[in-house]
Task: structure prediction
Amino acid sequence: MANPPKIFDTALIAAHLARRAPGANNFVMDLVLGDLEDRIGTLIRDFPRALIIGPDIDTLPITGQSASASFTYQRLAAFAGPDDLTDLPEGPFDLIVSLLHLQAVNDVPGYIARLRAILAPDGLLTIAALGGDTLTELREAFLAADSLVTGGASARVAPMIQVRDAGGLLQRAGLALPVADVETHIVRYANPFALMSELKALGAANPLADRPRRLATPALLAAAASAYAERDADPDGRIRATLDIIWLSGWAPHESQQKPLKPGSATSRLGDVLKG
Result:
């Protein structure tokens, strides 16, 4: 099988994370962890062995709580090696959680397949990743600025996973009962430079392997900020940034799971049910 194209420079991402400003407020991870707690908290299920993966191991929780029992996570740092994922611990795991990693993985099907391989029968895989229209305003602003200043276009914002494609990835990995949904947040900043500074402080600067090798010039940054403010500013002057968090979940197949009925096996007509 041919190697997938290298879209993201994972070594650069690791370097960005290592240079992150001490104590930087990672509000994106805070949003994701709050949502994860709500989602796991509704499950009437025990998770004796649970694994959680994320860019910053220090921000990952040590314990979790389902509707029936508390459990302990084994934590693993993403982007800790030259590949999409470092060596995985030996399974099987009853729960695997991957947070804010998938959006910068080069081999997405391979990544999900590796996690599926260490999932116990009837075990749950849950993934949260940036996708959809995340930072679409910043992408469009830089495209406009590049066209104005350089007469061309450069890749400055990473491509995003679309929720319509996500369910198929889970099925391809052999997971049952796949679910994909998106949580959309609109975040406001004083100006485009405040957004760019926060992305840099979080270690989320341009992660693309095919990124421009020259630093953005003051003229380009000024043009991007102007285009951003012109297109996506509110009446009070603050600018909007879209944040789409895509959630994927699927279960390792097990005989106890619900299965769709075979075609033609229904015992009642839909018309009769509606009349009743």
